[in-house]
């Protein structure tokens, strides 16, 4: 009702002053026999109106005076990015050994019945909306395989699979239609993440999982998503969400049921008390979020440092997503079996993440991330030196380039989280994620260029490589974040010195070469000039 504390205090004072002035003009002192304002000379309706106004005014004034100190504490905590009163739900899970036998069954069932069918939809996009190999069959016309020619009027698809492209002949002058199909799929992912992400906060995680599974089964005319309904009776709602929403009894029941210790060995009263503390902390968090609502998306552009970080990160997310999904769609144009090629591409993701984890811990975020992007981009650009007849070499370069970019995908998540202050982290990651979806929307149209007349079939790799190199070089203008103190507020971002040196085996080192990205204003190339924790 009231926007801030000044309005509350003002309106409360006005209401009380009105009641006192009205009582004085009526010539009757206020009788407080039962803590109510009684105006015996006034009509009954008027007395009741004054009674309500008086009680509301008095209650509002008292409540505001009592909460003013608490409000200032909340506001200070919000602006400093600290909130020590909020309980950590992970501590509650640890106290009950949450990953019990039944929880393991649910986790395995979720992976098999929810995650895998969802991933298959993305993989299936390569084949049900991809372009099979084709060639021209018009007499007396010479045309390269899987290329469109201006004087060719009839094409035949060679397989080894059929898709919407081959069924409706969506190549050459209709190639954009096939690209639209793939782009719409990415647009649906963007809309779905925004819609059901917000819906799950209101109706619960379990509800949204089953709604999405039902919609997926209906729209894809497939059976696998419906398998999740076989465990409907034992599939629980998120205990974290239940506790945050104030459903403490239900949250306690879920934790008691799925606890690794067993319900008989858990102190139910202590557990309920911890859940109540967590709920109070969530209420406190929402209050702080309301009090800091002025920290909007525009704050990411007002500060010069945040503006630079946001622009560079958004471009990097866009490029990484574009290249990552672009290579998946480009796999049908590579030499060899497309099914085997796609399998090997996804198989290469496993060692990529393990290797990256070690590198990021020993050599920091900035230099490794930039190096991986630049090297991956240059590998893609090597196709310019390879004749198009050497299809095996082009396939090898595509595999290596995609391997490098896949590692950057996991790196940019961590790096972006550490570059934004606490009070703007959700907004920053949200904008970056949206940029990534835009990149996946653009990818099909870049892959489409490979079949255009008088255009090299390796043009998509050249575009991907050039953008990857540009993104990697821009990343050098971002500061190092390994073991540094994460900023809580915009003020800390602006006043803290930035480290643009190197990290070797977990220890900071100065940059060996003077370059523009190592000499930004207000930054530090000296490891001792920044709060770097070893």
UniProtKB/TrEMBL annotation:
A Pfam short name: Sugar_tr
Record's bilayer topology term: Multi-pass membrane protein
Highest taxon of source: Eukaryota
InterPro entries attached to this UniProt entry: MFS_sugar_transport-like (IPR005828), MFS_trans_sf (IPR036259)
Alphabetized UniProt keyword annotations: Membrane, Transmembrane, Transmembrane helix
UniProt GO MF annotations: transmembrane transporter activity
Gene Ontology cellular component annotations, sorted alphabetically: membrane
UniProt main location, coarse: membrane
Chain segments annotated as transmembrane: 105-129, 175-196, 208-235, 310-331, 343-360, 367-386, 392-416, 428-447, 459-478
Cited Gene3D superfamilies: MFS general substrate transporter like domains
Entry's localization field: Membrane
Protein name listed in UniProt: Solute carrier family 22 member 21
Gene name for this UniProt entry: Slc22a21
């Amino acid at each position: 009702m009231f926007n801030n504390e000044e309005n509350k205090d003002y309106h409360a004072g006005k209401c009380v002053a009105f009641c006192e002035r009205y009582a004085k003009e009526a010539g009757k002192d206020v009788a407080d026999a039962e803590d109510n304002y009684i105006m015996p000379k006034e009509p009954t309706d008027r007395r009741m109106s004054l009674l309500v106004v008086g009680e509301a005014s008095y209650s509002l004034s008292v409540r505001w005076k009592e909460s003013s100190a608490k409000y200032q504490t909340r506001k200070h905590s919000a602006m400093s990015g600290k909130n020590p009163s909020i309980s950590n739900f992970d501590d509650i899970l640890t106290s009950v050994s949450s990953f019990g036998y039944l929880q393991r069954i649910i986790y395995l069932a979720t992976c098999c019945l929810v995650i895998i069918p969802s991933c298959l939809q993305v993989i299936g996009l390569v084949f049900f909306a991809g372009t099979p190999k084709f060639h021209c069959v018009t007499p007396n016309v010479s045309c390269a395989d899987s290329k469109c020619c201006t004087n060719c009027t009839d094409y035949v698809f060679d397989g080894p699979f059929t898709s919407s492209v081959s069924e409706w002949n969506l190549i050459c002058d209709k190639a954009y239609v096939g690209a639209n199909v793939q782009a719409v799929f990415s647009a649906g992912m963007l809309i779905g993440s925004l819609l059901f992400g917000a819906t799950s906060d209101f109706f619960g995680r379990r509800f949204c999982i089953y709604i999405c599974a039902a919609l997926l089964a209906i729209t894809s005319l497939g059976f696998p998503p419906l398998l999740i309904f076989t465990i409907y009776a034992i599939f629980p709602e998120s205990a974290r969400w239940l506790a945050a929403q104030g459903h403490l009894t239900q949250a306690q029941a879920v934790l008691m049921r799925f606890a690794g210790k067993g319900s008989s060995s858990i102190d139910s009263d202590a557990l309920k008390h911890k859940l109540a503390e967590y709920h109070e902390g969530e209420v406190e968090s929402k209050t702080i979020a309301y009090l800091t609502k002025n920290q909007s998306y525009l704050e990411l552009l007002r500060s010069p440092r945040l503006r630079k970080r946001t622009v560079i990160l958004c471009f990097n997310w866009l490029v990484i997503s574009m290249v990552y999904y672009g290579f998946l769609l480009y796999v049908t144009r590579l030499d060899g079996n497309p099914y085997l090629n796609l399998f090997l591409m996804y198989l290469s993701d496993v060692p990529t993440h393990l290797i990256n984890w070690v590198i990021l811990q020993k050599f920091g975020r900035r230099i490794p991330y930039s190096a991986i992007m630049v090297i991956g981009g240059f590998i893609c650009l090597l196709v310019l030196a390879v004749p198009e007849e050497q299809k095996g070499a082009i396939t090898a370069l595509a595999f290596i380039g995609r391997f490098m970019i896949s590692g950057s995908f996991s790196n940019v998540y961590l790096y972006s989280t550490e570059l934004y202050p606490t009070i703007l982290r959700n907004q920053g990651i949200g904008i970056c994620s949206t940029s990534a979806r835009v990149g996946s929307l653009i990818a099909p149209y870049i892959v489409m260029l490979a079949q255009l007349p008088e255009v090299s079939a390796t043009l998509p790799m050249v575009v991907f490589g050039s953008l990857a190199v540009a993104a990697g070089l821009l990343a050098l203008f971002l500061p190092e974040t390994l073991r540094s103190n994460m900023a809580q507020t915009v003020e800390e971002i602006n006043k803290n010195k930035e480290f643009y040196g190197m990290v070797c085996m977990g220890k900071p080192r100065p940059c060996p070469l003077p370059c523009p990205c190592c000499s930004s204003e207000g930054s530090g190339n000296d490891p001792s000039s920044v709060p770097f924790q070893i």
